[in-house]
């Protein structure tokens, strides 16, 4: 099936279940975002986190003739990280529009087909688990490192994130920058969510609809406060009622009404159907709430000064979760950034303007050679 606005046929991914087992960043001395409030508490000592990540692999589809005349240099692979309440389906149209690239798209822990992370005490042997892990920004960033290692991605490859995924990959890239690795301790100005991991320099970092602003300030505050009340209310309810609230068709309808910019009937129908199918594809309310705290209390801007690699910013001109001033501030803060603003779209540019987003990424990758 081909959707006209992607300009390419749909690609079929190959699912791979990738076992992940990595050190808990909280156990290494960091803090975690509280699961039911804004308070932060120490982790209770779990040393390892694990899950089986569902990853969709899309082999490159470059014709032999094109490959024979391609410019010399490494074949750059892409790792795409989806946003909050999404899964790999949300990145499908951008994947379709990049047929010449080998692409990996995981479901983050607790979403889609990837179970929530489990924590295991130090010294535990075998599959025995201590219990559910807390899903913080630092945890998601460490998960990206574990995925990259398991998929053997490295210095010639490009990391891409959309929305909450942009925060996750920025936090991860800040952790793995050579400057951070060279420092004996975490810089005083660094966010506590950032922990120092072994260095992994990506060729570049691409951020679609990057979260540049604190959503609890300025013009973003009224909408953010309403969403915050929605999620806080769910934690006060019995499980059955919480599920009903979180999976409410009304919540989907409000999301569609507030986020969709396009007026093309085919696109509107596609976005509504995607939300209907996948908006409620989370594992459980607790994991969803943890991901919400992580996504709503951090921005890409927090990590900008630590990103010492080429960065592509692709915001929508009508983004509902960032301001033009915030996007400009983010661009000025990044030492090696370029920005391509997509017109006539907002935060859902991955649905509304996938071909344009893909072209921006393609141009960016070409500059890395």
UniProtKB/TrEMBL annotation:
<protein>
    <submittedName>
        <fullName>Alpha-beta hydrolase superfamily lysophospholipase</fullName>
    </submittedName>
</protein>
<feature type="compositionally biased region" description="Low complexity">
    <location>
        <begin position="27"/>
        <end position="39"/>
    </location>
</feature>
<dbReference type="InterPro" id="IPR000639">
    <property type="entry name" value="Epox_hydrolase-like"/>
</dbReference>
<keyword id="KW-0378">Hydrolase</keyword>
<feature type="compositionally biased region" description="Basic and acidic residues">
    <location>
        <begin position="1"/>
        <end position="19"/>
    </location>
</feature>
<feature type="domain" description="AB hydrolase-1">
    <location>
        <begin position="78"/>
        <end position="359"/>
    </location>
</feature>
<dbReference type="InterPro" id="IPR029058">
    <property type="entry name" value="AB_hydrolase_fold"/>
</dbReference>
<dbReference type="GO" id="GO:0016787">
    <property type="term" value="F:hydrolase activity"/>
</dbReference>
<dbReference type="InterPro" id="IPR000073">
    <property type="entry name" value="AB_hydrolase_1"/>
</dbReference>
<feature type="region of interest" description="Disordered">
    <location>
        <begin position="1"/>
        <end position="47"/>
    </location>
</feature>
<dbReference type="InterPro" id="IPR050266">
    <property type="entry name" value="AB_hydrolase_sf"/>
</dbReference>
<dbReference type="Pfam" id="PF12697">
    <property type="entry name" value="Abhydrolase_6"/>
</dbReference>
<dbReference type="GO" id="GO:0016020">
    <property type="term" value="C:membrane"/>
</dbReference>
């Amino acid at each position: 099936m081909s959707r006209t606005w992607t300009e390419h046929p749909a690609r079929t991914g190959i699912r791979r279940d990738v076992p992940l087992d990595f050190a808990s960043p909280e156990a290494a001395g960091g803090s975690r975002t509280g699961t039911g409030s804004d308070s932060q508490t120490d982790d209770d000592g779990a040393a390892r986190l694990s899950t089986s990540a569902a990853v969709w692999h899309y082999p490159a589809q470059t014709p032999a003739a094109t490959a024979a005349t391609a410019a010399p240099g490494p074949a750059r692979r892409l790792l795409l990280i989806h946003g909050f309440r999404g899964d790999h389906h949300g990145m499908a149209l951008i994947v379709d529009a990049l047929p010449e690239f080998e692409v990996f798209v995981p479901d983050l822990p607790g979403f889609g087909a990837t179970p929530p992370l489990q924590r295991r005490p130090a010294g535990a042997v075998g599959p025995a688990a201590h219990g559910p892990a807390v899903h913080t920004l630092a945890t998601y960033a460490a998960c990206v490192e574990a995925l990259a290692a398991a998929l053997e991605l490295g210095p010639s490859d490009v990391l891409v994130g959309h929305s909450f995924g942009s925060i996750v990959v920025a936090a991860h890239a800040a952790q793995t920058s050579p400057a951070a690795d060279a420092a004996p301790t975490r810089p005083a100005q660094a966010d506590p969510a950032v922990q120092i991991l072994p260095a992994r320099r990506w060729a570049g970092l691409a951020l679609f609809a990057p979260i540049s602003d604190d959503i609890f300030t300025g013009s973003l505050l009224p909408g953010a406060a309403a969403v915050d009340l929605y999620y806080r209310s769910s934690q006060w309810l019995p499980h059955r009622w919480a599920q009903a609230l979180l999976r409410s068709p009304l919540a989907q309808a409000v999301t569609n009404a507030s986020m969709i910019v396009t007026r093309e009937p085919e696109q509107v129908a596609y976005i509504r159907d995607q939300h209907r199918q996948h908006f409620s594809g989370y594992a459980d309310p607790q994991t969803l709430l943890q991901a919400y705290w992580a996504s709503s209390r951090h921005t890409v801007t927090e990590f900008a000064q630590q990103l010492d690699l080429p960065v592509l910013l692709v915001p929508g001109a009508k983004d509902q979760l960032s301001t033009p001033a915030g996007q400009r501030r983010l661009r000025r803060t990044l030492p090696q950034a370029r920005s391509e603003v997509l017109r006539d779209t907002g935060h859902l540019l991955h649905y509304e303007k996938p071909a344009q987003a893909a072209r921006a990424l393609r141009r960016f990758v070409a500059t890395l050679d």
